[in-house]
Amino acid sequence: AQSVTQLGSHVSVSEGALVLLRCNYSSSVPPYLFWYVQYPNQGLQLLLKYTTGATLVKGINGFEAEFKKSETSFHLTKPSAHMSDAAEYFCAVSDRGGYQKVTFGTGTKLQVIP
Amino acid sequence: GAGVSQSPRYKVAKRGQDVALRCDPISGHVSLFWYQQALGQGPEFLTYFQNEAQLDKSGLPSDRFFAERPEGSVSTLKIQRTQQEDSAVYLCASSLGGTLNQPQHFGDGTRLSIL
Fold first, then answer.
1. Residue B101's pLDDT is what?
2. Chain segment A22-55, per-residue pLDDT in tens
3. Contact at 8 Å (CB) between A107 and B41?
4. For chain B, which has fewer Cβ within 10 Å, the N-terminal or C-terminal residue?
């Protein structure tokens, strides 16, 4: 079964600092990979996804992630944190075939310190 | 509205009661998903519909959980004889089709508390 592991349930960064949220996946074949963001009392919003092609994926709000097959990783980065980035972030994985059954990680709560 | 709408936003029920949670997907979206999100956890898949057909219900935790989408639009998740472990946020998502090129759009969820 596919799974993702998010390292660090809580991450704190200063405003303007680099954001790095870590995600490693487990899959027998390269899967589809996603990052979602969830603000308090809201549903999830897709930040970016990797399906095929370029391994560096750019998403909304200045976030990007790089698929590294050799490291089975899909870490999320943003060069400069804004206060509005404070939220919970979920890494997710899906099979390449079939419909969009997505398996989520346990989440990383990002705190941005002014 | 243009987004996925879930109702009620909050539901409190006594243990043993039945509850029904509603999801209005984006108009025209073929695929509909239900997820359960326990406190401090990521969402976990419950079930998937393509139009009115329930193609995957492998994530439903017990036979107390039942979902339907009779006309291929609105969906209802029903939980019978609720237990305290059913307390969670229930998220609904819809997408235009069944492929991963079409993103899932999530509702804001129903927070269910079982006393």
1. 66
2. 999 997 777 889 999 999 888 899 999 998 888 9
3. yes
4. N
Which chain B residues are Cβ-neighbours of A102 within 8 angstroms? 45, 104
Query: Are residues A90 and B42, on separate chains, in Cβ contact within 8 Å?
Result: yes
Separation in Å, CA of A23 to nearest CA in chain B? 13
CB-CB neighbors (< 8 A) of A60 in chain B:
none
Smallest CA–CA distance, residue B25 to chain A, in Å, is: 13
Contacts of A26 (CB under 8 A, 6+ apart): A2, A3, A4, A5, A72
Q: Name A53's Cβ contacts closer than 8 Å, sequence gap at least 6.
A: none
Q: Does A99 touch chain B (CB under 8 A)?
A: yes
Q: Is A108 on the interface with B (CB under 8 A)?
A: no
A positions 17-36 inside 8 Å of B (CB): 32
* 8 Å CB contact of B41 and A51: no
Query: Are A94 and B100 spatial neighbours (Cβ–Cβ below 8 Å)?
Result: yes
Residue range A60-94, pLDDT digits in tens: 999 999 999 999 999 999 999 999 999 999 999 98
Q: Is A17 exposed, middle or buried (0-12, 13-18, 19+ CB in 10 A)?
A: middle
Q: What is the 3-state secondary structure (H, E, C) of chain B?
A: CCCCEEECCEEEECCCCCEEEEEECCCCCCEEEEEEECCCCCCEEEEEEECCEEEECCCCCCCCEEEECCCCCCEEEEECCCCHHHCEEEEEEEECCCCCCCCCEECCCEEEEEC
